[in-house]
Amino acid sequence: MLKEFARLLVAASLPFALHAQETTGVLRVRIETDAGVIVADIDSARAPQTATNFLRYVRDGRYDDGAFYRVVTRTNQPSDSIRIEVIQGGLDRNGSRRLSAIAHETTAETGIRHEDGTLSMARGRPGSASSEFFITVGSQPSLDFGGRRNPDGQGFATFGRVVSGMDVVRRIHAMPADSAPPQRLQSVVRIRQMRVVAR
């Protein structure tokens, strides 16, 4: 009886907790994967365009049954002089759930640097990011605005950071993958679901 009451109390308070997050501009997202749970804070106050786009995918359930499918390590970038370490996920090959690309929001605008556990959008040219994102492993300043990883110098659009589950990120990063681009995992890690949760 007491357990049921406690559960109902938590459920009733959730909308108020989520409203409080909306007010501060930082929402928490729970990423449930086959390798474990990653929890991230999404900063729509500092990265409004990029965070809003990501949260739309989350709220629509578009990332459910997506995957982490690519890992970039120090050893599988044979032709890159500027090396990075990230895991990349999203819709993978399921393009039917992809929305239109968004404007590029640089780290110079947001002030969110590519530090350990930063969430950022994958892209080709500036303004081509849509659904695919990555999580940094360690500090990656070459991905910031003015960094040398991308020849255009615009860097990648950051929008949040991992607050719990970096052990899961590192576990995925250590899994066997291609020894050269596209650096695909030998066995992709399914994203079971993503949800906005109370902080």
Fold and architecture overview:
It is built from four helices and eight strands; from the N terminus they run H-E-E-H-E-E-H-E-E-E-H-E. With 199 residues, it is α+β, with helices and mostly antiparallel strands. The protein is globular. Helix content is 24%, strand content 29%. Strands 1-2-7-5-6-4-3-8 form an eight-stranded antiparallel β-barrel. The chain has a single domain (2-197), classed as Cyclophilin (Beta Barrel), CATH 2.40.100.10.
Highest-level CATH class: Mainly Beta
Give the overall silhouette.
globular
Strand content: 25-35%
Order of helices and strands: HEEHEEHEEEHE
Strand order of the largest sheet: 1-2-7-5-6-4-3-8
CATH architecture name: Beta Barrel
Main β-sheet description: 8 strands, antiparallel, barrel
Give the count of helical stretches: 4
Number of strands: 8
Q: How far from one another are the termini?
A: 26 Å
The name CATH uses for the topology is: Cyclophilin
Mean pLDDT: 92
Can you tag this structure with a few keywords?
4 helices, 199 residues, alpha+beta, single chain, Cyclophilin, 8 strands, eight-stranded antiparallel β-barrel
Topology:
Blueprint: H1 2-24, E1 26-33, E2 36-43, H2 48-59, E3 66-72, E4 86-90, H3 107-110, E5 118-121, E6 133-136, E7 158-164, H4 166-173, E8 184-197
Antiparallel strand pairs: 1-2, 1-8, 2-7, 3-4, 3-8, 4-6, 5-6, 5-7
